[in-house]
UniProtKB/TrEMBL annotation, chain A:
InterPro entries: ABC_transporter_permease (IPR051393), MetI-like (IPR000515), MetI-like_sf (IPR035906). Keywords: Cell membrane, Membrane, Transmembrane, Transmembrane helix, Transport. Residues 103-315 form the ABC transmembrane type-1 domain. Residues 18-30 have a biased composition (Low complexity). The chain crosses the membrane at residues 44-71, 107-128, 140-161, 181-200, 235-257, 295-314. Its main location: membrane. It is found in: Cell membrane. Belongs to the binding-protein-dependent transport system permease family. GO terms for cellular component: plasma membrane. This is Sugar ABC transporter permease.
Amino acid sequence: MTAAVGLGAGAAAARSAAPGTSSEAGARTASPRRRGRSRARETLAGYAFLTPNLLLLGLFVIVPLVSAVVISFQRTDGFGTGTFTGIDNYARLATDPVFWRSTINTALFTAIVTPLSMLLGLGAAVLMNSVLPARGLFRSILILPMAISGVATALIGVLVFDQNNGVLDKLLKFVGLPAVEWQSGGAAAFASVVIVTLWWRVGFNMLIYLAGLQGISPELYEAARLDGAGGWQRFRFVTVPLVGPSSFFLLIMNVIYSFQVFDIVFVLTGGGPQNATSVLVTYAYNNGFVTRDQGYAAAIGVVLLVITLVFTAVQWRVSRTRDLVD
Amino acid sequence: MTDTYRWRMVRVALAVIISIIVIFPLYWMIVVAFSSRADLLGGELRLWPENLTLANFERVFAAFPVVTWFGNSTAIAVSVAIITVTVNLLGGYALAHLRFRGSTVLFLIALATLMIPVQVIMVPLFGLVTGLGLYGSYWAVILPTAASAFGLFLARQFILAIPRDLIEAARMDGAGNWRVFTRIILPLSKPLIAVLFFMSLLQTWNDFAWPLIALKQNALFTLPIGLLYLQGQFGADYGGTMAFALINVLPMVLLFLVFQRYFVQGFARSGIR
């Protein structure tokens, strides 16, 4: 059910809208002329009601999107009008090591954070769906990070992961483990971004899975138990397939989130050390608003957009094949 | 029997461990916010505050316009929530109950805009906001943030579930679309309005990337931007930073806990954050 809400939702919505329209037309048996006039009025009303939302979206999203593509072919200094330089910006990207580093980091971050937050989310959801005292309290605690701002989350990360005087390294030393150089080590810094992100995001994944789990009939588990299925088998062959729609929805949401991760990286590491945690959105920000290379920043943005579109198109195809198979 | 008992103990232990991991960073923020500077500089591991103090808060309030920033955050978040919920409800009604050419395409385009990260459009958006003369006012943040299809889908789904008979009956009585919307749809949509309002409020209150670009004057900062600015000034003064982080976080945490039902519904149904 929740899966219908994501971006695949468009397809479902389009499909469900079609039959409604035809039965509607069949049910109304007014004369053609009256029907024509009322339809014109309905069209007018439809646009009138939709206009405020469309106007805002058009002005503050679509128009800037189109000009971002235009600017990506220009060379601009400061905020003046640019001069067209063809594909210069894109050619520069191809040989820019920081751009490649940021692209690889974005992909790596996505490949690590997406499965981990889904796995941990599913595990927590199964736990929270089982018989447990004070379940409501545990659930409230697990989703609490969702209310915390990204900046505050990242700053708490700065505090906890501080390699000079941070509580985490003190705890590690206390239990006899070596302290980690969370700021000066590239891999460690990357790991700290992943850990903070997981802390922030797992609650959301759990919530979606919890909604999915609550839709599974207990009789299915009973039937599986009677067939001699153990705990792991019931999880593997009943739970996992039946939360499929939730998994699919979360896959899309997590990937799109990961492509756009900004707050945590910007505040926690600033992309450092030596670009070890730089991602596409932070690199675009640095070019656009720090070094003021606007055309170049726009080109990075367009690349990010194309990657997102390709992913969505693939997902769309897969979801349609799934629909046909089911 | 004993086996199920043992498993229950395992589950409780797991739940407690996970909860501690989740709670600890928040607990630590509070400890640091109320600890003296001397205590924080000590090298040894200490997991609770030695000497409780309000000195960090006093320092933060003395050095920064905290009350102004709090007011900015409130004004911007409430304005965005009102505008976006209003336009989403209007649009949701059109998409749910009015049949017109192009509605599906427009709906799909609106949904697709949710995928566009602000970093893709930030350069021209900044130019646009400046060109419209919005730069230097709240509107530079409010309007682009309120331009969202967030909630449009939820509004459409919710309004679709309102029985058509109710609307047809009102039509028979000669009610136009505006009357149907204000007299029938709105009163029946209170739960939806609550969900959308809280979601939008939370999102805007915590928003970072666009306000960072659009708010350059100190007097206009929202709390997250102020928090980053303060950290830049205070550097390693974790006590002050965490005291202010607490001020940033507390209102939404309280709201979240009190109105958890609405947030959970909103997140579970929309999944957009």
